[in-house]
Amino acid sequence: MRREGSPWTGLWTVVGKEMSDHLSSARMAVLEALILLTALGSAYAAIQTMRDTVGQDPFLFLRLFTTAREPLPSFVAFLSFLIPLCAIALGFDAINGEYGRRTMSRILAQPIYRDALLLGKFLAGLFTLGVMLLALWLLVTGLGLLLLGIPPSGEEVLRGVAFLVVTLAYAGVWLIVALLFSAIFRQTATAALAALALWLLFAVFWPIVTGLIVDFFRPELQSPFGGDSAALLYLQQFIERLSPNTLYGEATLALLNPATRTLGPVLLSQLQGAVLGSPIPLGQSLLLIWPQLTGLIAVVILGFTLAYVLFQRQEIRA
After folding, report:
1. Where residue 177 falls among pLDDT bands split at 50, 70, 90?
2. What residues contact 229, with CB distance under 8 A and at least 6 apart?
3. Which of 29-43, 109-123, 213-227, 303-317 has the lowest mean pLDDT?
4. What SS3 class is residue 72?
């Protein structure tokens, strides 16, 4: 039988309802308070460090996001740690929570297809994270204006917007991971633990796994004249970039540090005619991070496709 009407009927109704639930939930209030406190702390510590150590810098505002002061890490380090937790908290019960509350059959009894329901839940979580990230970025920028007394340049604003886009793509990866596990497991606790375990693998244990794999292939790729060949470096880089954390770290490095000219092994041909320490234009930085951003978006698309196929195959009973 052919379906009648558009498969996206009711999409924005689902998005509005889910966003309302997210923004008014106690879970989101706790996460927002935690991120707000850590962001303010890291930004204030960065400003104090910049007052003591940084002189004339054409990209002074970008240092707000990357400067750390013991015992607090930088703002970017806080985001790379807390954004996955927020995304997992928003998505781990998106599908199985409806089964647990016995509301899935009631929702789909309305003129809403599964396509619109799944996409609506993902977009609602992504928009919620986007609102939170935009508010944080404006808050840190305003704090820098207030305490430093120097307005950001146009390129710094554009680099900050690009940083927001990359961070939102990184958040989308962990949101779709949580949504995928929510479609696989019927128990919400199991879905949350599976998503957190995957995040811990990439955040904590992936460098260890990379080192073990590189050591395993070292005898085969070792240069006959002694020392390691360039193949080992490229193998290590390839394995590290299988982690979304690595892709996000490289993208933010190129955007927030304009002097970054390469994200891989440095070749002599890349240094010819270059003034070390000089910044490169924003367009060149965007070209530099394009593979990383494409990789993050590809993971989101792949995860959504898997979640869509699994959700379509599930039997729903009243």
Report:
1. very high
2. 221, 222, 223
3. 213-227
4. strand
Residues sharing a CB contact under 8 Å with residue 251, sequence separation 6 or more, in sequence order = 166, 289, 292, 293, 296
Domain coordinates in residue numbering, the chain = 11-313
State the average pLDDT over residues 161-182. 95
Check if the beta carbon of residue 183 is closer than 8 Å to that of residue 314. yes
H-state helical runs in 25-153: 26-53, 63-66, 75-91, 96-100, 104-108, 114-148
Q: What are the φ/ψ torsions at residue 110 (nearest 5 degrees)? A: -80, 170
Q: Around Cβ 216, how many Cβ atoms within 10 Å?
A: 9
> DSSP of 206-220, one letter per residue?
HHHHHHHHHHHHHHH
- The secondary structure of 180-234 as a DSSP string is HHHHH-SSHHHHHHHHHHHHHIIIIIHHHHHHHHHHHHHHHHB-TTSSB-HHHHH
268's enclosing H/E stretch is helix 268-271
Q: Has residue 59 got a pLDDT over 80?
A: no
pLDDT of residue 278: 73
pLDDT confidence bin for 30, thresholds 50/70/90? confident
Contacts of 154 (CB under 8 A, 6+ apart): none
